[in-house]
Amino acid sequence: MSGTVAVVTGAARGMGRTHCVRLAEEGADVIALDLAGASDDLAQTAELVCATGRRCVTRVADVRDQDSLVSALAAGVAELGRLDVIVANAGIYADLALSWELSDEAWHRTLDINLTGVWHTVKAGRPTSAAAGPS
Ligand SMILES: NC(=O)c1ccc[n+]([C@@H]2O[C@H](COP(=O)([O-])OP(=O)(O)OC[C@H]3O[C@@H](n4cnc5c(N)ncnc54)[C@H](O)[C@@H]3O)[C@@H](O)[C@H]2O)c1
To answer: What is the span of the domain harbouring residue 118?
Structure first.
C-alpha cells in the first residue's frame, strides 16, 4: 500500500476505524469520512492514523448524499494528491428486528445506507482514482 491513498467511509469507529489504521500501517495515506455527529470519533481515527506516520484527511460525508461524497473526496484528493483505494464501509444494522418486523422506514434507511451508499461511494471515487487511468 506504500505511496497509495485510500478513502474509507464510516471511518469514525468500528470496522471503518480499523480499516483506516490497518491501511496506514501498510503505508497508505487515508481520507476518512463519516457523519457530522461522529466528528470527535473521526478525529480519534485521524490521530491513530497519524501515529503510524501516515497522513489523514477527515471530512464529513453522508453516503446517502452523493454531493457530500464528491466534495469530501475532492478536498481529500486535493490535499493527498491521488486516490487508489475505495473502502465503502459505512453501514448500519437495522434495528435488530426480524426482517418481516422491520418498519418501512427502517428498511429504506438500511437500503439507502448499506446499498445505495456503496454505489454513491464508488461513483464519487472512481473518476478520481488512479485505477481510472488518464482522463
Ligand atoms: N462489526 C462486525 O463484526 C460486523 C460484521 C458483519 C457486518 N457488519 C456490518 O458492517 C458495517 C460496519 O460495522 P461496524 O461494526 O463497524 O459498525 P459501527 O456502527 O461501529 O460503525 C459504522 C460507522 O458508519 C458510520 N455511518 C453510519 N451511517 C452513515 C452514513 N449514512 N454515512 C456515512 N457514515 C455512516 C457511523 O457513523 C459509524 O462510524 C455495518 O453495516 C455492520 O452491520 C459488521
So the answer is: 5-132
CA 43 from chain centre, in angstroms, equals: 14
Residue 13 CA, closest ligand 1 atom number: 39
Our answer on whether the CB atom of 8 is closer than 6 Å to any ligand 1 atom is no
pLDDT at 135 over 50: no
- Give the CATH number, domain containing residue 61: 3.40.50.720
Report whether pLDDT(33) > 70. yes
Burial class (CB in 10 A: 0-12, 13-18, 19+), 127: exposed
Among 45, 67, 92, the mutation site with the greatest number of ligand 1 atoms within 8 A of its Cβ is 92
Task: Determine if the pTM surpasses 0.70.
Answer: yes
